[in-house]
């Protein structure tokens, strides 16, 4: 109750001081420790500084620095960064595999519960990795449908149309999924240059250990081509698959022709300092891996789905060739 009264007093002071200025104020949490008269004095100083800045701007030519301030940024951490954070955290407290990824997917409570119980049971953190991926496989199958969240280097978030999970498999601590997306609108498939029609099917291969997503487009029994997106290893939640796009893509055409797309964009961002040297080399090596045997990353449901026998998705690079 006391905090509410103090907040009301601070808001009243701000309203009185700023009335007619068109300005607003944001109180930090530490403001609750300040005396009302100190807050009023601080507001007077800030108003005077603001007026001084306006006068200074009138005599400057853009671009120009007018004041040192704070830099506030919202960072979108990749699965690679979260893995490093897991390792650091694991050096201090019990940390299960994919701790930060799972928490970012809205699974904070289950993660806290699991770590609390397991830390007191004598189990080592690395021993529960397969259990975590098994839980995710069960979750995506039960949810039935997943949405793809595609994060661009610019920070822009693109949500692809969702699809139905038709296979999920755990092997060696990695999770492999096949998602069936049915196209509902017309257009053109990027990179392939092929007309998109309602009813076309995109079989998406997702592997939590691989830096790519393989989109395989079909119209009936006809394969239209495959678009292999190079990205950070995807993060998987009960109803979501999230990854950070690394711009480079590899396209495989039914004719057998293979093309690499947007490598120049990656190089431009690298030169501009947007993409680090490490991430730049990571993306290049991932593309080179696909180019070394592109057919291994192409999925043919007419063959592969019949050969599962309930075993899950084939490993990329071993089975599932069109």
CATH architecture of the domain at 145-307: Beta Barrel
Query: Termini distance?
Result: 67 Å
The secondary-structure element order is: HHHHHHEEEEEEEEEEEHHH
Approximately how much beta-strand content do the residues carry? 25-35%
The strands making up the biggest β-sheet line up spatially as 1-2-3-6-7-8-10
Identify the CATH class of the domain at 145-307: Mainly Beta
Give me the count of strands. Answer: 11
Return the CATH topology of the domain at 145-307. FomD barrel-like fold
Oligomeric state of this protein: single chain
CATH superfamily of the domain at 145-307: FomD-like
Number of helices: 9
Mean pLDDT over all positions: 84
Radius of gyration: 26 Å
- Shape summary: globular
Low-confidence stretches: 306-322
Q: Would you write up a description of this structure?
A:
The chain has a 7-stranded mixed barrel with strand order 1-2-3-6-7-8-10. It is built from 9 helices and 11 strands. Strand 7 (212-219) and strand 8 (222-231) form a beta hairpin. The N and C termini lie far apart (67 Å). Helix 1 (2-18) runs parallel beside helix 2 (36-58). Among the domains are: 2-58; 145-307, FomD barrel-like fold (Beta Barrel), CATH 2.40.380. The protein has helices spanning 2-18, 36-58, 79-90, 99-104, 108-119, 129-143, 263-271, 277-292, 301-304; strands spanning 145-151, 157-171, 174-182, 187-189, 194-196, 201-207, 212-219, 222-231, 235-237, 240-252, 258-261. The chain is of the alpha+beta class and 322 residues long. The chain is globular, with a radius of gyration of 26 Å.
